[in-house]
Amino acid sequence: MLFLFSVVGVDSQGLNVLYPGPEPMKGSILMQATRIDRKFEQTRAENRAAFVSFVMAGDPDEATADAILAGLPAAGADVIELGMPFSDPMADGVAIQLAGQRALAAGMTLEKTLAMVARFRKQDDQTPIVLMGYYNPIYIYGVERFVEEAVNVGVDGLIVVDLPAEEDAELCLPALKAGLNFIRLTTPTTDNHRLETVLNNTSGFVYYVSMTGITGAEIKNRAAVGEAVQRIKSHTQLPVAVGFGIKTPEDAALIGKYADGVVVGSALVSAVETSLIEGKASANTASDVHKLVEALSQGAKRARS
Amino acid sequence: MSEVMVNSLRQGPDEAGKFGIFGGRFVAETLMPLILDLEKAYRAAQKDPEFLSEMDDLRTHFAGRPSPLYFAERMTKELGGAKIYFKREDLNHTGSHKLNNCLGQILLAKRMGKTRIIAETGAGQHGVATATVCARFGLPCTVFMGATDVERQMPNVLRMKMLGAEVRPVTAGAGTLKDAMNEALRDWVTNVDTTYYLIGTAAGPHPYPEMVRDFQRVIGEEIRAQIMEEEGRLPDALVACIGGGSNAIGTFYDFLDEPGVQIFGAEAGGHGLDTETGHAASMTGGRPGVLHGNRTYLLQDKDGQIIEGHSISAGLDYPGVGPEHAFLRDSKRVNYVPVTDNEALDAFMACTKFEGIIPALESAHGLAHVMKLAPEMDKDKIIVLCLSGRGDKDVESVGKHLGMAL
């Protein structure tokens, strides 16, 4: 029953626990496999890495972002991370900072991000969507309302950079309860002891950050990434996706050898940026992103062949 | 120093780093192991007589503490009400209270074996204090400073450079303190193994708000002893300016459980609270949110995007505030009041002309509130203002504002 493992963490005794809180968990949470679980099942069966693409909601404008999003699955994206723009993205490099600023300047909000997912779901009910961003816009939107609407529009998981395990009560537990996956980042600074804390309540997949650094920086030691993925896998049944610093099909092929998923973000939003004419979307914006996704996803997919 | 009682307002933070709902540890996972280590190192240091005696020695011989409590006789007479005292943090080495915190944190960084220091700065006072302790202890130092602030605080930029620090101007956003803090956090995430982030205010993820407060509470403890010596009783009111709020929490902390002492924090009211994006009064004009590692009052729009603060003072134009202040606001123990740019300018000039003390523009915000309070109070009442820094850095920009010709 892989589905079981996918939604639960493994605690230090090797027992399956959803979370150590006082409330007993509801059976329905356990049984519900998400689109994320099913997608990784599929890529595992195909003996290949999943290609996870990150784009920023509303970048460079809502209509173009819709077109980018709509074409991602056909271009080779197995999982989509959709950035929720934030004014102060502390963990992001310049490329994603600028993507967020473009989106905000074009009037993007969290409400519109959810609406964007709803439109996508009308034509695609298979490709998992993970919303990624920072906590404050969600906190201001209202956690309860956000979680409920996210489920309703067809969001599958959340990655919230500034919510470590210590703050699980804020959003992680309500999200799990509602049936969303809560995907946590693990980093080179996460030692084995800490890893137990991080994996507890993590579901969907584990996102390994390839370096100590911000998005779009250089991976200093590729061999160490492989070792780290193996180390994490010895602690969990969840798929492990690797992100930060993957920019070329060759990078994707290398990382895809041992990771269950390869995440690319900065390179894609940079493609948006270079396609712009006088700051506005051009006829090529969506297709440029899709071409890059094709090339990168081919890299990830041929990694083990 | 007074004892902590049951129902004390001085019991925070709890184990999760919370003051009521405020505070916490809202940071990326990369930083979590480090801030947990930092907390451990801090707890150990607090109990280590060697650490405490080194702090004492540095405070006495390097910083020049205790700083004087000064009776502002002419301003008292001019305003015609309560007696006004200044706690002279402007006479602390480097020219502000910022050094108090830097001394504590640099000793901690050394204990933790860190070999590089980073800091953010707004007005440059914290940057200078950090560059100073790094020079004193021989550690390389990088200070992140908004490009706008680099322009308006040039003397401090030069001081930092002379002290051996690298000053990195940050052009993102409006190029002020918030952007400098984002960039410092990005550097920290990247160089987490070697680098200690010396945060300058009582904000950020736990344990920083507690730690910075503890290193600054010497201000209030000295005030207590000095006013007892001078007047034989506690003051009726305490006033300090608030950006992030480190001089204020240091001033207030020892008096939180003294109901007879009214406490006021002066926020940057900029062009006035009715001007959106025209002020930096996060507690009178903002609402709770999460930024830079903690939940606190923030200037933000209805979608939770952070708004750039404005203040004539580069040290106060931060859109947030330390979480303990947010707690003290909601518990109504401290009264937070906005002070406009113009009121601060008036106070700046009044202090300079009547007392022969050029105050930092930040401290002038506190003084402006004192100038409102004092005339309303009887002559036998006592107000203590934390004069948090000296204004040498501001003379050029104030001169420009007032249209003074050379």
List the helices and strands and how they pair.
The complex is a heterodimer of chains A (305) and B (406).
Chain A: H1 2-7, E1 9-10, E2 16-17, H2 27-31, H3 35-45, E3 50-56, H4 62-75, E4 79-83, H5 94-105, H6 110-123, E5 129-133, H7 135-141, H8 143-153, E6 157-160, H9 172-177, E7 181-182, E8 185-186, H10 192-199, E9 206-209, H11 222-233, E10 240-243, H12 249-256, E11 261-264, H13 266-275, H14 285-302
Parallel strand pairs in A: 3-4, 3-11, 4-5, 5-6, 6-7, 8-9, 9-10, 10-11
Antiparallel strand pairs in A: 1-2
Helix pairs in contact in A: 4-6, 4-14, 5-13, 6-8, 12-14, 13-14
Chain B: E1 18-19, E2 22-26, H1 32-46, H2 49-63, E3 69-71, H3 73-79, E4 83-88, H4 98-111, E5 116-121, H5 125-137, E6 141-146, H6 147-152, H7 154-162, E7 166-170, H8 177-190, E8 195-197, H9 208-216, H10 218-231, E9 237-242, H11 246-252, E10 262-270, H12 282-285, E11 287-291, E12 293-298, H13 323-330, E13 334-340, H14 341-355, H15 361-373, E14 382-387, H16 395-401
Parallel strand pairs in B: 4-14, 5-6, 5-8, 6-7, 9-10, 9-14, 10-13
Antiparallel strand pairs in B: 1-2, 2-12, 3-4, 11-12
Helix pairs in contact in B: 2-4, 4-5, 4-9, 5-7, 9-11, 10-11, 14-15
* Mean pLDDT level of chain A: 90
Strand arrangement in the largest pleated sheet of chain B: 3-4-14-9-10-13
- Name the structural class of chain A: alpha/beta
Chains forming the largest contact: A-B, 42 and 36 residues
Q: Remind me, CATH topology of the largest domain in chain B?
A: Rossmann fold
Give a structural overview.
The complex is a heterodimer of chains A (305) and B (406). Chain A is α/β, with parallel strands linked by helices. Chain A has a single domain, classed as TIM Barrel, CATH 3.20.20. The longest helix of chain A is centred in the last third of the chain and has 18 residues, at 285-302. Chain A starts with a helix and ends with a helix. Chain A has 14 helices and 11 strands. A 9-stranded parallel beta sheet of chain A has the order 7-6-5-4-3-11-10-9-8. A two-stranded antiparallel sheet of chain A has the order 1-2. Chain A is globular. Helices cover 47% and strands 13% of the residues of chain A. Chain B is α/β, with parallel strands linked by helices and 406 residues long. Chain B has 2 domains: 33-60 and 98-212, Rossmann fold (3-Layer(aba) Sandwich); 66-95 and 217-401, Rossmann fold. Chain B is built from 16 helices and 14 strands. In chain B, the strands form 3 sheets. A 6-stranded mixed beta sheet of chain B has the order 3-4-14-9-10-13, sandwiched between helices. In chain B, helix 9 crosses helix 11. Chain B is globular. The mean pLDDT of chain B is 95. Classes of the chains: A alpha/beta (305), B alpha/beta (406). The interface between A and B is large, with 42 and 36 residues.
